[in-house]
From TrEMBL:
PROSITE patterns: ABC_TRANSPORTER_1, ABC_TRANSPORTER_2
The organism's taxonomic lineage, starting at the top: Bacteria, Bacillati, Actinomycetota, Actinomycetes, Kitasatosporales
Biological-process GO terms, alphabetical: peptide transport
Official protein name in the record: Oligopeptide/dipeptide ABC transporter ATP-binding protein
Species in which this protein is naturally found: Kitasatospora viridis
Domain of life: Bacteria
Length: 361
């Protein structure tokens, strides 16, 4: 696949906005032997101090998108487009550039903490092994820094936890250790790949509150990968919705919840229970997500869409473009804004977007 040249792709930062921490510019990732790309011209951006969510079903490409910021791509994949972390393109970057990004600019909190920590080594070893070579610290200084990070992550007894093994901690405590480990590099960008999926509801709330506190106090950019649209709206200022490797809607959290404009987003909200108002029967999204061995000539969601129009939706793929006739006034957000003020444009990839603005989820 040829590399896509950088240009004003829908979904990238608005003209005149400040430089983002991370910017995906028409990123495409394709594995040989598949019928469609894993990622298809994905464009998004995130600025310092901003929390942004990437939402979608399993297999939509969310995790591949997040890992791309660290230069982690599937083996043998054909890569097109760019991923710039503080201006450095990690696509095709050399080892020294990738090392600089991974040890000083961006860190990742993975979904399963038990898969990310060596089970036969102590917590202290896990934290200090990256502090000593990367930070140039002595053993004592690395231990002091590890204690500081465990305290910042909300663990009650850092000296004792340094001596413990992973199996001696609960899932929530171990995820706090992973967060502390992600902070050892003093990153400006924190990538969180479904960090609360394996945790109970109470612990989920504690972990998300911790991440938001760290993000605000340290001025970090936070990219949250999740399949939970309500969680994304509660924790993030902006939301990108992804389906079958493409961004299908991008809006502020307020706009997205109040008036979704893509049928897939409407379906996600319709399948979520409501705490207020009448308790209606949930309406799941019909069908199953499109696999990598499947492709469609038109919209990838058309086969599951209750609004699909024959001869329109199945003929050509809709581009991700600004929508007209917004039903709500622009909501203030903590994100990059176009020149002259105002929030980023609302983007939807749907032939029928202007007809769906009054549709109830």
């Amino acid at each position: 696949m040829p590399v896509v040249e950088s240009e004003n792709v829908p979904g990238s930062r608005p003209s005149g906005a400040g430089a983002p921490l991370v910017e995906y510019d028409a990123l495409s990732v394709t594995l040989p032997g598949t019928a469609r790309p894993i990622l298809d011209a994905v464009s998004l951006h995130l600025t310092a101090g901003e929390a942004v969510a990437l939402v979608g079903e399993s297999g939509s490409g969310k995790s591949v998108t997040a890992r791309a910021a660290l230069g982690l791509f599937p083996a043998g994949a054909l890569i097109g487009g760019q991923v710039r972390v503080e201006g450095r393109d990690v696509v095709g970057a050399d080892a020294a550039t990738l090392r600089g990004v991974r040890t000083g600019k961006a860190s990742m909190v993975f979904q399963d903490p038990r898969a990310g920590i060596n089970p036969v080594r102590r917590i202290g070893d896990f934290l200090t092994e990256s502090l000593r070579p990367a930070g140039g610290r002595s053993r004592a200084a690395a231990r002091a820094r590890a204690l500081e990070l465990l305290g910042a992550a909300g663990l009650p007894d850092p000296p004792r936890h340094l001596r413990q093994y992973p199996h001696q901690l609960s899932g929530g405590m171990l995820q706090r250790v992973m967060i502390a480990g992600a902070l050892t590099a003093d990153p400006r960008l924190l990538l969180c790949d479904e960090p609360t999926t394996a945790l109970d509801v109470t612990t989920q709330a504690e972990i998300m509150a911790l991440l938001r506190t760290l993000q605000r106090d340290r001025g970090l950019g936070l990219l949250l990968i999740t399949h939970d649209l309500d969680l994304a709206a509660a924790c993030c200022e902006r939301i990108y919705v992804m389906y079958a490797g493409r961004i299908v809607e991008a809006a502020t959290a307020t706009e997205l919840l109040a008036a979704p404009r893509h049928p897939y987003t409407i379906g996600l909200l319709g399948s979520s229970p409501r705490l207020h108002g009448e308790l209606d029967r949930l309406t799941p999204v019909p069908g199953v997500p499109m696999g990598l061995l499947e492709s469609a000539p038109g919209c990838s969601f058309a086969a599951r869409c209750r609004f699909a129009r024959p001869g329109v939706c199945d003929r050509s793929a809709p581009p991700l473009a600004p929508v007209t006739s917004l039903p709500l006034p622009p909501a203030p957000v903590l994100s990059a804004a176009p020149a002259g003020g105002g929030p980023p444009p609302r983007l939807v990839a749907c032939h029928l977007a202007d007809d769906l603005h009054q549709e109830e989820p």
